[in-house]
Amino acid sequence: MGQAYSAGLTVTDSIVLRKERLLPLKGQVLVKKGDKVQAETVVAETLLPGKVVPFNLANKLGVTPGQLNNFIKIEVGQLITKHTVLAETKGWFGMGLFKNEVRSPIEGEVENISSVTGQILLREPRIPVQVKAFIDGIVTDVIEDEGVVIENKSAYIQGIFGIGGETIGEIKVMVKNPADEIDPHAIDDSCAGKIIVTGSFVSYEAIEAARKHKVIAIITGGIDDLDLKKLLGHDIGVAITGHENIGLSIVCTEGFGKITMARKTFELLQKFDGHKTSIHGKTQIRAGVMRPEIIIPQAFDENELVVKEAAMPILEPGTLIRVIREPNFGKIAKVTGMPEELTKVESETLVRVLEAQFEDGTSMVLPRANVEVIET
Amino acid sequence: MQYDEKRLTRIVATDCGSTTTKAILIEWVDGEYRQTIRGEAPTTVEAPLNDVTKGVINATQELEELARLKYHNPDIKFMENGEFVIPRKGDVGVDAYVSTSSAGGGLQMMVTGVVASMTGESAERAALGAGAIVMDLIASNDKRMNHQKIERIRELRPDMILMAGGEDGGTIKHVVEMAELVSGADPRPRLGTGFKLPVIYAGNKEAQVHIKESLGDKVDLIITDNIRPKLETENLGPARDKIHDLFMEHVMKQAPGYNKLMEWCQGPDHEQVAIMPTPAAVGNIMQAIAKDEKIEVVGVDIGGATTDVFSVFTEEHVFNRTVSANLGMSYSISNVLASAGLENIMRWVPMDIDENYLRNMIKNKMIRPTTIPSLLEELVLEQAIAIEALRLAFEQHKEFASSLKGMQRQRDISEAFSQSTSGATIVNLMTLDLLVGSGGVLSHAPRRHQTVMLLINAFLPEGITRLAVDSIFMMPHLGVLSEISTKAATEVFKKDCMVYLGTCVAPVGKGKIGKPALSAKLQLPDGSTWEEEIPYGEVRLIPCGVGEVAKASLKSLSGLILNQNKDRELNIDLHGGIVGIVLDTRGRRPFTLPTEKAARIAALKKWMREFKAYPESILQ
């Protein structure tokens, strides 16, 4: 068998990117097809329905649910203030004596009135939500009432794991080699608003220093899980991240532990030192996979915007791969052979393997499952 | 529609799992159905490919290549132009293609009831039985405030909601209240922005009109028979069928590539064969084993994202299934660490490992879920984690698999003395006949001895229990294959799928390390005799092959018991298997491991040697 499909991460100095920027609910699109937008531009906005406040009106009024209609003073869809009278009894003998009235606990609108449960649902005022472009580029499509598609040409690095949401800033490479670690003392006020880059590792102390000096994001080869736990205050159970509110975003390009950043990734970051970059740590590994991204926009002509169809990363002789499991975790190699037979590895597991040559010239047989293609 | 060997000579079956798409080839060979070749490829339901059929094509290509090698025939082909050729024409094509799926997160549901432990639990049972993951159960009495329930419904984004509540003629108010909460949340489905969320109402029939008023405009409302028409009766069938129909109609079609996959799944007459959720297919097989052999069965399928546990207990063959949604060996492996705790994992590790190393290893597996342990040390660590995942999933299952709660029972005098209550678990390890394991970590363990050790350590079977494993993880395929050929599914199941590992004998009770616990004399099929008085805290493995039976005289000592009748002496036939007969005197209720680290590691190594689980190099 000469080739096989394998998962991979993209690291490239030039890619045509297409990003959908959608509202969570239908709303208003603020830009039109052909508009040039900056990453910070608001492209669409909507109003999210407010929080629902269930309220047992019959109980408050001291009547049965079936009787509620006789006393109700509002109707479904009506806007209300905090003191709107929702219902009132007529009082003794219809003379208003000991009249019981119930006022709204919130400002908003009436969603539902039920004569079965005696409950009404009130909805708080709508909450405005805005979606930004996130990348500099051109609006190539407008999805009516829902959002836009933005395209650009970028240098692009797909991380493997991250935390924290979308942010935009300049890249500042803080180390000389991809195997280096960042020194916490090197992080100072000159890093404020920047995306700092380290090599193989970022320690808890370095993250704390970055937060103190208002760094907006860190790009690193690896991070220790214990440091992550300390940072978040809890253990990550499943990899669904991006919503953490810790003051900065972190993108790991290789994984957990000290792992030298792939030279290609590091050199790309060095090349774009000082450039404006869009970055996020959102990671979701199942049910709609999402990996963190580092996007460095470049100048382009509109006729360059031709998005390549997604292709299957293929393992075959000559493919550049990254080892993603011990031994040799993190090392880069080139595939030299794809033997067909199942091969027994140290754990006695019978697996399909490949032969690979590392950058230092040494060769090794590796399970195909334990490598990923470096896509360019 | 059922077909025989005249119409089905070559079948491809796939299971599109959350991590891997597994394909098997079933052929009519020398007068019988056999599973002949297996292939796999990464599942491709997610970005960048966003098309589940790509993974199916890759896995099938591997099957084709291996078939050409096996039969020295370069003309063998199952697909042409990226589609299955049905029916087969000589070397080209297959007679049928069938598939199961749990890709894309499987079927994710939310259920509601009035009383959590009654109608709520019945709704949960129906959803789980249909092959769903239950994301949350919301009930009138679940102690959350109404606004919290609304927030929860809104944030979860299930594929569908099943609403139960109230026996027929019972409460209307509380059922309608739940409907109002669902309506207030205005829930949106996980997949597909343009369609309404399917909501099945299977509660008090007298509340139906109010439910329609409350929900009719907002969701795709389907009304079916009450799941709990009376307190003492559960009627899960109609709701389960509706869930399955809706899953096919709404959910599957939204997932990338499924429309095409659904069209591909065909029998010889080009009739469509429905894609089955993987757990539903495995459940079918487990029930078939229990009914055919009239035995009590526990089965487990440990996957990358979830661990499904199945049980069939009591003379009425009561079937239960639970899905532990975030206990698995790849995507969810980190959650096993979070749920079980580091200490519980480390208690199964026979070496000193740095906490940081283990944590990072687990997280790396989570973010690159398709990798496999190529180092022996990493295999040992993954298997330690698997024991805890299985243990936790079984704990959840035991709690859930119970008799109906809340009903009034007339008791006879013996029941009154036994203090049995409604709602107690029906999982009884002492009466359990067969424990079956399936899923990558069990089916693909490099040594079957490891599978035996994992099953025993995780489930702690009591008394006398046979152990088996799904040889190469094909139960899901066979579960769906039985839809078009029970004959093919059954033959392959018996000959190629089910591997009997042996029997575990585990006296129950607490003893003292080193004191006699079990006196055992085994007449082995080769005429030899094995005899020993085994001290408490030990394991013995006696080879006895598949299809062989050892005549055993067992006598438990120091107050331990051997079966549900509390017998202390038994003359019994013990079935052999590919591993053999395990005599386990480590005690049950409680089972404990030495607390001191050096003693624990020494004990683990001794047991692992006896189990022949690992090479000596790692046990020194």
The percent range for strand residues of chain A is: 35-45%
What is the number of helices of chain B?
Answer: 18
Shape of chain B: globular
Radius of gyration of chain A: 28 Å
Rounded to the nearest angstrom, the distance between the terminal CA atoms of chain B is 58 Å
Structural class of chain B: alpha/beta
Low-confidence regions of chain B = 413-420
Q: Tell me which protein chains meet in the greatest interface and how many residues each side has.
A: A-B, 60 and 70 residues
> What would the average pLDDT of chain A be, to the nearest integer?
90
What spatial form of chain A do the alpha-carbon principal axes imply? elongated
Structural category of chain A is: mainly beta
Largest sheet of chain A: 17 strands, mixed
How many strands appear in the DSSP assignment of chain B? 24
Low-confidence stretches of chain A: none
* Portion in helices of chain A: under 10%
Major beta sheet summary of chain B: 8 strands, mixed
Quaternary structure? heterodimer
| Spatial arrangement of strands, main beta sheet of chain B | 15-14-13-16-17-18-24-21
Description of the structure:
- The complex is a heterodimer of chains A (376) and B (620).
- Chain A is mainly beta and 376 residues long.
- Chain A is built from four helices and 30 strands.
- Chain A has helices at 57-61, 204-212, 225-232, 263-271, and strands at 4-5, 8-22, 28-29, 36-37, 42-48, 52-56, 79-80, 85-88, 101-103, 108-113, 119-123, 127-132, 137-143, 147-158, 161-163, 167-173, 194-197, 217-223, 240-241, 249-256, 276-280, 283-284, 293-298, 314-315, 320-323, 332-337, 342-344, 350-358, 363-367, 371-375.
- Chain A has a 17-stranded mixed sheet that branches. A four-stranded antiparallel sheet of chain A has the order 6-11-10-7. Chain A has a three-stranded antiparallel sheet with strand order 3-5-12, with no helix packed on it.
- In chain A, strand 10 (108-113) and strand 11 (119-123) form a beta hairpin.
- Helices cover 35% and strands 24% of the residues of chain B.
- In chain B, a hairpin with a 3-residue loop joins strand 1 (10-16) and strand 2.
- The longest helix of chain B has 25 residues, at 376-400.
- Mean pLDDT of chain B is 89; it is low at 413-420.
- The interface between A and B is large, with 60 and 70 residues.
